[in-house]
Specification:
Blueprint lengths: L10 H24 L4 H31 L4 H24 L7 H21 L5 H21 L1 H6 L4 H29 L6 H33 L1
Bound molecules: retinal.
Length: 231
């Protein structure tokens, strides 16, 4: 049975709806607040708003696809991620570059790590490759990114900055470790437990996007506000 409108019993569809509206609201908030923070933080706030904006547009399509077709909107999700995940890597670079000297190689390492993670994730989900090896390669790329953030040029740079930047960097790093772990968990429930379960997959991915896009921006906003007060 196909539907055009959201059904009251479609709980995954309801989460698609909530997250899509939350992404729009967060976008307006980040753009508006970005005009109030000190100049060096403005680009970071704009990028935080772009991340939720790109997600908001894709969530409109994803929720409609889910409600009418009842299947995972894999291609829309990955188009969203291939744009928003590299932008999050840009954020790490920007919050550091705003206040200290940081090697551009930090950005490129994170960028390549993100591409490998997402390309293999997509191949596994779209059935272009078997799901387990795609998952393992994706996880290795994710671990590589954590390694770079924890021990690489970012950590060296952040040690020379103010307390608010250090807090922002560390919180963002924890988001990449703990918040991002929700995605491979979704993949495990969706693909690696014998059957393909698109309901748990999308429920978990929707929750993860809420945390990792909106909370991520809030962390940057908080750092910008705190930095202004101490400056
Ligand atoms: C806004 C979207 C974000 C932050 C998306 C993040 C996606 C991931 C961290 C995906 C990770 C995956 C693995 C670590 C293994 C392979 C499967 C993936 C792509 C779900």
């Amino acid at each position: 049975m196909e539907h055009t409108f959201l059904q009251g019993t479609d709980f995954v569809g309801i989460t698609f709806w909530i997250v899509s509206i939350a992404m729009w609201a967060a976008t307006i908030f980040f753009f508006y607040e970005g005009m109030k923070v000190s100049a060096k933080w403005r680009t970071s706030m704009v990028v935080a708003g772009l991340i939720t904006f790109i997600a908001a547009v894709h969530y409109m399509y994803m929720r409609d696809f889910w409600v009418t077709v009842g299947e995972s909107p894999v291609v829309y999700r990955y188009i969203d991620w291939i744009l928003t995940v590299p932008l999050q890597m840009v954020e790490f670079y920007l919050i550091l570059a705003a206040v200290t000297v940081v090697a551009a190689s930090l950005f490129w390492k994170l960028f390549v790590g993100a591409l490998v993670m997402l390309i293999f994730g997509y191949m596994g989900e779209a059935g272009l490759m078997s799901s387990l090896p795609a998952f393992i390669i994706g996880c290795l790329a994710w671990l590589y990114m954590i390694y770079v953030l924890w021990f690489g040029e970012g950590k060296t740079a952040v040690n020379t900055t103010s307390a608010s930047v250090q807090t922002a960097y560390n919180t963002m790093m924890w988001i990449i470790i703990v918040g991002w772990a929700i995605y491979p968990a979704g993949y495990v429930f969706g693909y690696l437990l014998g059957t393909v379960d698109s309901s748990s997959l999308n429920l978990i991915y929707n929750l993860a996007d809420f945390v990792n896009k909106i909370l991520f921006g809030v962390v940057i906003w908080k750092a910008a506000i705190d930095d202004k007060q101490t400056a």
